[in-house]
Every structure is written in structure tokens, then in C-alpha cells.
Design brief:
Blueprint: E1 4-9, H1 16-28, E2 31-37, H2 48-59, E3 65-70, H3 74-80, E4 85-90, H4 93-109, E5 114-119, H5 129-137, H6 148-159
The structure holds coenzyme A.
Amino acid sequence: MNRTAIYPGSFDPLTNGHMDIIERGSHLFDRLIVAVGINTEKPGYFSVEERLEDLRVCCAKMPNVEVASFEGLLVEYARSRNSRILLRGLRAISDYDYEFRIALANRRLAAEVETVFLIAREEYSFLASSVVREVAKFGGDYAQFVPENVAKRIENRLKS
Ligand code: COA
């Protein structure tokens, strides 16, 4: 059986925590599709194109990882890609409530689709895209939290 999993998220911006989940996920499944959810109501810190570009650079060394974007319901996207596995990262118990609700809603919408969780590595358990954005805004060392190309993009944004 060919196992394709989807790792959905906003990735705004992509962090080392996301990369940890992507790398570990790439070893677990035959194919991993990292999918940026397009939220038409939220403009985002970086555009979807910028986020896709950063993901592509960071995932280039992983041949079984594909980078894509989707609009609408996640389970419909999974169906369209012939995937029955949604991958999510769990950082802390506070993520559980939220993830639990979304996973149940997704199961109700598509019973054949399973959500699989990977526990984030301890050093990333506090990390979130909003933390990166805030540290950057107030002049802190954001580069330690993100891949190099993302740090460069944030630097350019701060200069402009
Ligand atoms: N390391 C670091 N940060 C992580 C992380 C990890 N392993 N896992 C999650 N995060 C952070 C993100 O950086 C983000 O941080 P922020 O809120 O501070 O910006 C936060 O956790 C939210 O995670 P994200 O992965 O972006 O998920 P989301 O909750 O924004 O969901 C979609 C994005 C696209 C998956 C979701 O909106 C979706 O599925 N949309 C389609 C509609 C749908 O089908 N909804 C479900 C049915 S109700």
C-alpha cells in the first residue's frame, strides 16, 4: 500500500518546529504532502506564495515530500490527493483540546481519514509562528527559531 499523508498548516512563518515534524513524517510515510491552507479572510504575515517558496527550499532534500496549497475543507483536499492520513504536531497539553475537536470534526466529515499526531521535540514545545512574529517585531533573536531562508525573509520584511 502506498501511504500518503498530509501535513496541513498555516506555516506563517515556517519554524524549526514544523521542520522537525516534516522530517520525522517523511520517514513514516511513503509520501508526505505539506499543505498550506489558504485562509481568504486572513491576509497573513507572509503571502501563501512566499510560504510555499520557503517550504520548497527547506524540503528540497526530502524526495518524498511535496509542497502544495489548498482551499476549502482539509478532508476534501485529502480525498482529492488520495490520502487518508492527516499529520499534526502536538506541542503541549494545551494543543490537545483544539486538535481533539478538529480531528473529531474531520472524522465526522470523512470517516475514512485518520489524524495522526507526532509529539513535538521538547526544545520546540513552546514554539509557534506567532512567537516568531512577536520576537521579530520587538527586535529579539528570531533566527534561532526558523530555517535560514525564513530568517532572511523576515529580515527583509523588517527592513522594508
Ligand atoms: N512547531 C511549531 N509550531 C507549531 C507546530 C509545530 N510542530 N504545530 C503547530 N504549530 C503552531 C503554528 O505555528 C501556529 O502558530 P500561531 O497560531 O502562533 O500562528 C499554530 O500552531 C496553529 O497551527 P497551524 O498548523 O497553522 O494550524 P491552524 O490551526 O492554523 O490550521 C489548517 C491550519 C490549514 C490546518 C486549518 O485551518 C484547516 O484545516 N483549514 C481548512 C478548513 C477545515 O477543513 N477545517 C477543519 C474542519 S472544522
